[in-house]
Amino acid sequence: MPVHLKPIEEQVIVITGATSGIGLVTARMAGAQGAHVVLAARDRDALAQVAEEIRHDGGMAVHCVADVADEEAMRRVADTAVRAFGGFDTWVNNAGVSIYGRIEEISMEDHRRLFETNYWGTVIGSLVALRHLREHGGALINVGSVVSERAIPLQGPYSATKHAVKGFTDALRMEVETDGAPVSVTLIKPATIDTQFEEHGKNYMDSEPINPPPVYAPDLVAEAILHAAQTPVRDLIVGGSGKLFQWGERYMPRLTDRVMERFVTRFQRSGGPRQRHGDSLWQPSGHDHEERAGRHSFVRETSVYTRAQMHPWVTTAVFAGLGALAVAAYAGKLPTGRRAPMRLLEDKRARRGYARRSDVEEFGHNAKPAEQAAAEGTVTFAR
Fold it and tell me: Looking at the whole model, is its pTM more than 0.85?
């Protein structure tokens, strides 16, 4: 059965992790575009505030307090969407958190908790969503990371969870497509994004963590999510640096290892002396209701690569047009006429001391070099 996705303004969209960063920006953007949004997160007060803001700005929003690792709570999120709006068209599994530190120093309890949130939260959300989407159609969107393509040091457990999310999402997509279900399954893979990611992560290091540049605006991820909500797409990398990650792993993994070991490890420790002790691994940290971190000196507000992924035909047309202009510009420098290319070649050969092709044709293949022919009065040099 073909997948038909509605325009954003006709949709009901469920978003987990909706009280900060990517989830918050996506919720506000979807509400501003006319979608009805269902917000899910653990922080009750922040959820209520975000929902009220969206309604105040003219949108429609409801919220449901839920930990994504709790299957019963996630069923309540789906039930909330059905009661409030009759169902949902897009489900976004966005909630996630990280741990900074050496793998051997991280407690097993924290390892397991990270997988409960990032991996099992995505699995539970996907399965709950599919019970509705298989019958009514729509989009399932899982927010992964570029580290699902290329692991990085000092965030080993986080990299592992995102590798797992990618494997799960890719397998689920194939099974859904094999069944002919009217559901689009998309994996969004952001690069470094200017959110409260570092503040939310649990930190085992003796310094404040900071993710390596280039850093992109969370709005770019929200745009990619809403694009996938209305256009079936397999996956989207947000930020051109994410593609470089992918290429590094595919074509020169050992060299990429060395670069990571030398530069990325050091950079992630460069946030200054450790000052805080709170995090969002086990409970809300109090850093909710913020879209951006504001700690990065430069944040990229656009990504040509991501835009090209979302609009491939437009990009192809633009490059084709530029190619045509380049050819036209080059052709404009050539002499006009049917024999123009040969005339250029003849002029070049004449400057090097050879007779023109026209002279060879006139006098035969035994024509003499230009200097000798000129002396005999049989040919003149090109001007």
Answer: no
